[in-house]
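Final report, results section. Input specification for complex C-07:
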Amino acid sequence: VRTLVARGDDVQVISREVPRIRAPGATFHSLDLITDRDATRELVCELQPERLLHLAWTTSPGEYWTSMDNLDWVGASLSLFRAFTEAGGRRAVMAGSCAEYDWSREVLDEVDTPTHPATLYGTAKHSLRLVVEAAARNSGVSLCWGRLFFLYGPEEAPGRLVSSVLDALRLGEVAPVSEGRQERDFLHVDDAAVAFVELLDASVVGPVNVGSGVGVSVREVVATLADLVGRPDLVRYGTRPTPASEPDRLVADVRRLHATTNFRPEFDLRSGLIDTLTRTPAPHV
Amino acid sequence: VRTLVARGDDVQVISREVPRIRAPGATFHSLDLITDRDATRELVCELQPERLLHLAWTTSPGEYWTSMDNLDWVGASLSLFRAFTEAGGRRAVMAGSCAEYDWSREVLDEVDTPTHPATLYGTAKHSLRLVVEAAARNSGVSLCWGRLFFLYGPEEAPGRLVSSVLDALRLGEVAPVSEGRQERDFLHVDDAAVAFVELLDASVVGPVNVGSGVGVSVREVVATLADLVGRPDLVRYGTRPTPASEPDRLVADVRRLHATTNFRPEFDLRSGLIDTLTRTPAPHV
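Structure output:
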């Protein structure tokens, strides 16, 4: 939102919650896409947006993989997309997920890696894409589907990797983690935001991975964080199990993202974690 | 509905329209699954149905292949399914379509034929199945997905093959049809209804073709109908184009249906068309 406002776009934001971000210049509409479907449709009809960036979904850590809320989000997203096309919308970018892919592959790309989601969350995202892509083709809307990988950054929900380790270390508590040998494609949330704005400006249609293109082990994330906080002594590797279903390596092939946009991540792991640390308030003891 | 009532089931019907069928013993609820979502959820929560048979969808001839209503039906179906599982439902059967398959194959089966829908309608059905199957696995509901092929019978909507040819012939008007060499799997609507009731009783999960297993050419359907009405002279083969995208042959592999239920069609083409003719009121001249 800040990026779009900064360059002078007329930004209309639909959000359930009172916005926590400071973005003077953007107009906020407090609506729940699931329960306020009629009001959402009326608003979209009135605003006649040219472009749509749809990121909303259920993302409660530990729950969203299997939550029945995934069903409502498919429906709400389809309803929003229909309203957008009927209001004359031209370009839509929606948030997909690396969870749509077959995770027996290590480097995931949009063309050759099969979509074979193992979870309800991944299945819901995958299925939504199939329907909106078909609807977009029929209605002449340009649709891009940005597949997010593993995000971190300031204002992360409690219970996620970086937020939970950071909180423990700053409280002087032991941080139990897994062996952490598994490699993931981590991206700072601000970089992900910029990538989505770039995709909104681009003309590429279909799925595009939004990642760093670099595999980093969970252990390296934790070790860097512990080093920055100055408490490597508190980390206990191997005291949490690594689920057998966790793949060893999941990295985004970012050739399509690089070929179709000017996006390059601003942060590497270390600078991204420094930024996270700086912008995250210390926990109350 | 008649079949279920006849055997003593407690049948609760949700329908938009005032029911045209006579089914004393069934309770009708006039609700629109798309616009009356909250009321539907409350009703399902109150009724606590053990079993769900979900057939509703947009089916306007000529329009449903590309209609944006397909998006709403995905959402409404997911919403209904969630309400059903949360009300303690055990067994659900939903209507899928042969349009989910790759139509470059001639005999379509549930295991070996790829799902590759060419239309928004087929994509919506396919995507809905993926999500409800994943949700059913998570919530312990037994879900079966009956894939319908080509239906005909009394009370058919105007504009479909049998209804339009029958109306023309009975009015003494010329009936323009295509060459009609393409073969399809036709099933009388009463047989399809019985098959769905059988699937509701069965324990089979996943997709099951609901068809006759026999390929019949469109020309044979029209010729039989013209013979029964006594006006073969009015049929003009080849005066309507056969779209290039129309496949030559689409027939259901019904081995799974036969292996998991006692269903066998009551009607063959001739007896099914006689029944249709008998039960269809003559058009007003």
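Residues 107 and 276 of chain A are 27 Å apart (CA to CA). The longest helix of chain A spans residues 120-139. This concludes the modelling results for the funded period.
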